[in-house]
Amino acid sequence: MNKSTRLALAAVTALGATSAFATNGDHLIGLGAKARGMGGIGIGLGHGAESALANPAMITEVPATEVSFGGTIFMPDVKYDGGAGYQQSDADLNVIPEVSIAAKINDNFYLGVGMWGTGGMGTDYREDTSGTTMQMVTNLQLMQFGVPVAYTSHGFSVGATAIIQYGALDINYNNGSTVGSGIAQDIAFGYTLGASYDLGEAGINGAKVGFVYKSAITMDYKDQLTNATAPFASAGVTGISSELEQPVEYGAGLSYTLGGHTAAFDYKRIAWSDAKGYKDFGWSDQDVFMVGYEFTSELGQLRAGYNYAKSPIKELDWMSNGGAALNMFNLLGFPATVEQHFTVGGTYHLNETLACDLAIAYAPEVEERFTSATLSGPYEIGSKHSQSSVSMQVTYAF
């Protein structure tokens, strides 16, 4: 078994042991410590080999060959109130891997490969004895394998990343009888397209713009969602398929560098309302705004950032179309409700070829209160959710 194969198996094993909490819906705010240190910035500012998914056109900033590997330690804090006060979810520590490689083939062409834990979500109330959480355990895991290819000429770059996505979903609970039959897995295909332009070619030195489009990727999780919602058919929850689609994304970014200072702004839209599965649960589209700053010195870089996106989960009318039960599923099993993220990070160059990257992100607690119902009538449910994370990686350029 060669080194590349061993590395791939190690990353898959690490992801399989986690239920990754993401931040913009079920997506991480950024992939790699550089991007995460700047609030997820990566469309209009390149981060070398890290850029394969954020904007593949930006891998053209790799001077020769670059290898980046590391991961994120994710620490979500989730609580659910089903009428007996807030109960704590035990899904509070996750490890998310990342490996990125990019190389300059000639003055115009660049090629890379990588694998990334891109997100997921989940809760774990199996130890709860309050009787209000149904001891629900949910676990969505997502990993993408990609091959970015890019072309650059006269400041204009285009790129594309072919993606193989692996996903696993498990939903189980006890409402008098056990619901759930183990983990369902699937593999599907997608792509990311990107473009960038160095405005220095037009006389605006230090400025760059970028654009990105990510295709939808439809996963079939073998009746996981269908079986999980079937007991609530009498409450109006019907027509839920087994498919869960990672939605279309598109966005644009701008960065400007003057001396050792770089400021950047990214915007992207995530189309949850058109994605299979998510639209059945009433998720709304997200407008994601990212602001980042980087200071560069001889020793390395310091970074800071801010990311904001309104929660895609909204309260549904509890009196129609199964809204009462769907409100419960969203807050109890899939509480992707955090909205603000404050980040800091940095890079320390050990020598000309080796650097260590670090990022810390914090999402303040958000509380949501919705209306659910039983045969006895409506009642209020709630969710509290905050996050903190540490991302670390090593980058080797040669």
Automatic annotation (TrEMBL):
<dbReference type="Pfam" id="PF03349">
    <property type="entry name" value="Toluene_X"/>
</dbReference>
<keyword id="KW-0812">Transmembrane</keyword>
<keyword id="KW-0998">Cell outer membrane</keyword>
<comment type="similarity">
    <text>Belongs to the OmpP1/FadL family.</text>
</comment>
<dbReference type="InterPro" id="IPR005017">
    <property type="entry name" value="OMPP1/FadL/TodX"/>
</dbReference>
<protein>
    <submittedName>
        <fullName>Outer membrane protein transport protein</fullName>
    </submittedName>
</protein>
<keyword id="KW-0732">Signal</keyword>
<keyword id="KW-1134">Transmembrane beta strand</keyword>
<feature type="signal peptide">
    <location>
        <begin position="1"/>
        <end position="22"/>
    </location>
</feature>
<keyword id="KW-0472">Membrane</keyword>
